[in-house]
């Protein structure tokens, strides 16, 4: 493959789409009274709650902080066990550690790549307090089964829906189906606020705790105050954090949310171009879709049939990079990171996730790419697979 690369310029795997109206929305805030948490945050929270069909939403400085807040609100504390998937970004498990809890990794279903409810059930002990399913790539996890297990064992369900804004499960929008649901607004996600995250919930108690946790554990709510020194008075009632989103970011988020339908439609269109192009390539497995769900397609991941190829995943990954295709790998299973290994998590506890990790490559997918970009990716994949075909 010494010839000229398929593309002259590098195509990233994901990036934001910012229009002039997004820029104007931010400028308006910069000229106004509030920079940090003010009316634009409230407006953004309402817009997200309304979009996903939840009663409440609490915005955080990022999705990881939001997950931390959810673990706090769920009452996760020292020694409590929380079951999650290893096939995710480390934040899905780190949020449990922040609260002194213990993440327990349940292996994935090898077809959907999502957490396997059967494995969740097997790992439940009298210390288990919650389950954090992740809607990997945007395809919702098996929520009915997970809710059934949670009900039987009195567990809180916190959905990590960082990939799944706009996805549906059995026709219902992700964001109002579990105790709490987290969305992230990092620039590679469906919509962005620069950094940002949110928890949606229908539970007023969680809502109140989340608000207070986001701001140092402080309240000014007269109904909650234990004392009163005068009109300036507020109380810090538990150890919270400064996890507030700014109005600057929230205004960008609200402006972006207006375009979510277009963004998801474009993602779906590019996915069907990929699926059509790759279905006749034996060496590539395209993503299985659960007929119960509609994915919002954060990521497009191909799985390589390495038996049929003369190179390994690294060879193919590097060859695609040489074609200027911004490939990636999502994810290194969380328990394999050195930090987790040092906590005692061992290779072998989640064989399906570990095997999947060796065989996957994430291809570029974002609404701001063009059909020609998609065609470049397809050409590059075909070129590289042809080269390594046995
Ligand atoms: C992006 C992401 C997060 C964290 O969100 P941030 O806003 O980057 O903190 C958590 N879980 C998953 C699966 C993610 O993709």
From TrEMBL:
It is an enzyme of class 2 (transferase). Its EC number is 2.6.1.92. SUPFAM superfamilies: PLP-dependent transferases. The active site is at residue 189. It comes from the Bacteria. Signal peptide: none annotated. GO terms for molecular function: pyridoxal phosphate binding; transaminase activity. CDD domains: AHBA_syn. The modification N6-(pyridoxal phosphate)lysine is found at residue 189. Pfam families: DegT_DnrJ_EryC1. Keywords: Aminotransferase, Pyridoxal phosphate, Transferase. GO terms for biological process: polysaccharide biosynthetic process. Coiled coil: none annotated. InterPro entries: DegT/StrS_aminotransferase, PseC, PyrdxlP-dep_Trfase, PyrdxlP-dep_Trfase_major, PyrdxlP-dep_Trfase_small. Belongs to the DegT/DnrJ/EryC1 family. This is UDP-4-amino-4, 6-dideoxy-N-acetyl-beta-L-altrosamine transaminase. It comes from Calidifontibacillus erzurumensis. The lineage of its organism: Bacteria, Bacillati, Bacillota, Bacilli, Bacillales.
């Amino acid at each position: 493959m010494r010839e000229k690369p398929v593309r002259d310029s590098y195509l990233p795997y994901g990036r934001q789409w910012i229009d002039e109206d997004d820029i104007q929305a931010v400028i308006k805030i910069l000229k106004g009274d509030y920079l940090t948490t003010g009316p634009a945050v409230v407006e953004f929270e309402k817009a997200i709650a309304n979009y996903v069909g939840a009663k409440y939403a609490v915005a955080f400085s990022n999705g990881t902080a939001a997950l931390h807040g959810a673990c706090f609100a769920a009452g996760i504390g020292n020694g409590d066990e929380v079951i999650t998937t290893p096939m995710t970004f480390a934040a899905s498990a780190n949020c449990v550690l922040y609260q002194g809890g213990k993440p327990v990794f349940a292996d994935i279903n090898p077809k959907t790549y999502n957490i396997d409810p059967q494995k969740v059930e097997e790992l439940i002990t009298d210390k288990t307090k919650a389950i954090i399913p992740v809607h990997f790539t945007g395809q919702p996890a098996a929520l009915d089964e997970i809710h059934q297990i949670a009900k039987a064992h009195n567990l809180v369900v916190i959905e990590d829906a960082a990939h799944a804004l706009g996805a549906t499960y059995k026709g219902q929008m992700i964001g109002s189906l579990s105790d709490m649901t987290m969305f992230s607004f990092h620039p590679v996600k469906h919509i962005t606020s620069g950094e940002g995250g949110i928890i949606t919930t229908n539970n007023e108690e969680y809502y109140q705790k989340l608000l207070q946790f986001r701001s140092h554990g402080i309240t000014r709510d007269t109904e909650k105050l234990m004392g009163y020194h005068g009109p300036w008075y507020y109380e810090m009632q538990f150890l919270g954090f400064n996890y507030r989103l700014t109005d600057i970011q929230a205004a960008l988020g609200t402006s972006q949310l207006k375009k979510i339908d277009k963004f998801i439609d474009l993602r779906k269109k590019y996915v069907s171009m990929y699926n059509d192009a790759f279905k006749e390539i034996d060496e590539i497995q395209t993503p299985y879709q659960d007929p119960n769900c509609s994915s919002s397609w954060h990521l497009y991941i191909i799985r390589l049939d390495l038996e049929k190829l003369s190179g390994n995943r690294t060879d193919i990954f590097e060859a695609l990079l040489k074609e200027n295709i911004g490939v990636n790998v999502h994810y290194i299973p969380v328990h394999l990171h050195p930090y987790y290994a040092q906590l005692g998590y061992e290779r072998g506890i989640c064989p399906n996730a570990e095997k999947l990790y060796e065989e996957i490559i994430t291809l570029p997918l974002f609404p701001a790419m063009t059909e020609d970009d998609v065609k470049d990716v397809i050409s590059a994949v075909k070129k590289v697979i042809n080269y390594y075909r046995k």
